[in-house]
């Protein structure tokens, strides 16, 4: 039987208080992170230097005592490991040499990914050996659709025109990219589990931009394929799915992908989630990061509401997306106290 609160919740147990961790809990809102980031040079150097990746992963654990530590890394290490050029521009974000057709897939070398990402798995191993006994180690990856959008667009996008254009006009060719990502992401998750991750989360940050039939083809089916591959090797390891923006497709996603738990974005009504999703699986979420940024009475009211609605079943307190870099540290401290009933 699991003794760590996060694993208890993922096993379907109702805990006395919800375990808490936050997406992007290691990051730019912490002064100690900014110091290590400046020393590292580039963002990818930080991700690929185990000593530094371990340090920034541990920083929020030391400061706040979260119930889980999520590996400090990035969803774009997968395309980088597959052989695509990836770099980060300060103030602009990620940049990739875009792949826009089947011919572009020839540049990818899936067989070299695990060796390329060995420093990431080394960091996981070091974290597994050094985390406090009550803290769960969370590994993660982007999901195929979301990773594909960056690979095709060459970075962030507002309309995903190139990705949708390829997917809708040449579904077979785009499907080849998705198939490569399914296998690469499943391998990436399994490598993290082998190194010591106790649960993993799939981030599908752009799941909400697809229409009905495309959601099934490019979100549900690839996610199910990844879950099947991971379960074949590690049947007991919980898998959290985060289909941000899925809206009314959340129940279908939860029922058909095989994930252990679903993470709710900020738009999901908690009463609906409690009635529709939570009877079937644990749920995680879903405080609006802007409410955490604002703090004060609004934060206290929101925490009370979310816990009141969702803590009658298996529940993990988290944000509905990643923490905002301008968030005051004291607001996170207040959040921890509120969730734990410490005032």
User: Considering DSSP H and I runs of 4 or more, what fraction of the residues is helical?
Assistant: 40-55%
Average of per-residue pLDDT values: 97
Please describe the biggest sheet, giving its number of strands, its sense, and whether it closes into a barrel.
7 strands, parallel
Strand composition percent? 5-15%
Which segments are poorly predicted (pLDDT under 50) over 5 or more consecutive residues?
Answer: none
**Number of β-strand runs:** 9
Q: What is the radius of gyration?
A: 19 Å
Enumerate how many helices there are, as a single number. 16
Kindly give the count of domains: 1
Order of helices and strands: HHHHEHEEHHEHHHEHEHEHEHHEH
What distance lies between the first and last C-alpha atoms, to the nearest angstrom?
31 Å
Second rung of CATH, namely the architecture: Alpha-Beta Barrel
Report the top-level CATH class: Alpha Beta
CATH topology: TIM Barrel
Global structural class:
alpha/beta
What is the overall shape? globular
- The strand line-up of the biggest sheet is 1-4-5-6-7-8-9
Structure description:
The protein is of the alpha/beta class. It has a single domain, classed as TIM Barrel, CATH 3.20.20.210. It has helices at 5-10, 31-40, 43-48, 50-64, 77-82, 113-116, 118-130, 144-153, 161-169, 171-195, 212-233, 250-257, 270-276, 289-294, 296-310, 329-339, and strands at 68-70, 86-89, 93-96, 136-142, 199-204, 239-243, 261-263, 283-287, 315-319. The strands form 2 sheets. The protein has a 7-stranded parallel β-sheet. The chain has a two-stranded antiparallel sheet with strand order 2-3. Strand 5 (199-204), helix 11 (212-233) and strand 6 form a beta-alpha-beta unit. Helix 2 packs antiparallel against helix 4 (50-64) and helix 10 (171-195) packs parallel to helix 11.
